[in-house]
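Entry 14. Structure prediction run on the chain below.
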Amino acid sequence: MRRDAVENREALLAAARVELNLDADASLEAIAARAGLSRRSVYGHFATRDELLRELITLGAARVAGAVVGVDHADPLARLALIASRLWREVDDIRVMAVFAVRGPLKGHTADALAPLRARVVAAIVEGVAAGSVRSDIPAARLARLVEDAALSALDEASVDGMPAADAHRLVMLLVLSTAGLSAPQAAELIDTHPELDWSRSS
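Output returned:
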């Protein structure tokens, strides 16, 4: 593509991130206006609104996956908390958009894009079950989905309530760890005894 076409496409994607975080139902007109472009110019890059959303989700999922690819810890529970921490850091400024991506009409596309991240969560759970630190009464794949739902519930709450980032960061880790089988005091202790989970260090 010509340089101006590439810049316009990037401007549309950047505008979509902003508009969709303000309103998950934002129209193409609103997105184009924020990008300083006409609606007609949008169709030169994306045939439909869903096509634009799919690309935005693909790029976002790649960014999230890239942020957690290097996450590792000998303790599977600490690793789950670290994954939740990194995930939160990546979506804090696009809370509404993130919920829409995972729970909206394009959730199937999002699921495919986030497959590598979900595989890492399952692996941590399997290791934790083997070590006796993660609950074993729920199959690992199902527990991984419940852990993800817990993280999304924290994201929902933070979006609706306007929760401060540091509080929401702690909440998402608490819910993930509690779902994995820790009591509330155990989850809090794990977070408090791992400096790398502190918001000031992870942000």
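The chain has a mean pLDDT of 87.
Filed with the rest of this week's runs.
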